[in-house]
Amino acid sequence: RGYLELCDVSRIAEQCGCNVVSNFAERDLAAGGLGGPQTAIPQWLLLRKTGKTRLLLDVGRSVRLTLLPGGQAEEDLDSLLAFDVGPGTALLDRLSLRLSEGRLPYDPGGTLAVQGTKVQKLIDRWLADPYFRETPPRWQPYGVCAEEALDSTVRMAVDAGWSIRDLLCTATHFIARCIALAVHAYIPGGLDRIDELLVSGGGQSNGMLLAEIRRQLGQLPLTRTIDLGWPQGQLEASTVAVLAGMHLDHVPASRPAISGTDV
Length: 263
Prior knowledge:
Elements: H1 9-16, H2 24-30, H3 40-47, E1 54-59, E2 62-68, E3 81-87, H4 89-99, H5 120-127, H6 147-160, H7 164-186, E4 196-200, H8 207-216, E5 222-224, H9 234-248
Parallel strand pairs: 1-4, 4-5
Antiparallel strand pairs: 1-2, 2-3
Helix pairs in contact: 4-7, 5-7, 7-8
């Protein structure tokens, strides 16, 4: 495994005139970990709620799940979990772009998906991917790739006469199903353990997706992070700032159950 930063850290430091802390993933790799996810402990510090166990679903290009225990003691970190679940909004966006021949780069708010019909055999086909049998810790630095599934899906859609609405509806149900399966398989205590769902990322604006996630997870209370006062992108920036502070204070920012190491 390796990891390539997508920015020139030295140039940022030079242009901004300040010290820059970076290369979190490379440090984790060097210590024998997977390189990530690096966000679990900072997000626990930022989003935990005393006496409540929250499940944070980062519904971005891929979906990441983070279990946030409600305690504040050091031992609560031992029950902290975070791992990649499966494809997220990237699958919806690519389907929309490909099947509209470039006219629709995304499905705003899930308005097309809600008009379609779920194709269960397609969901079963996607779930047969070996990725979904991998146990945590698991992390994909560039997101969970849906490119192979996308190519075969487009061919199947043409042969079967499925509409763009049907495929977007099916993909929305698939994303929610991946989340539900991960909760039942890998969260000790399953749904009984969770008091509240938090949703971050671009998927916050997809009403159909949020409704289907709630349905798949027993109608648990669901709150968007933007409704908690975290504008889009601010949680991610704050998370990185907390990581930098932990590094300066020499506090480990991971756990073996999360990335495979505790640096």
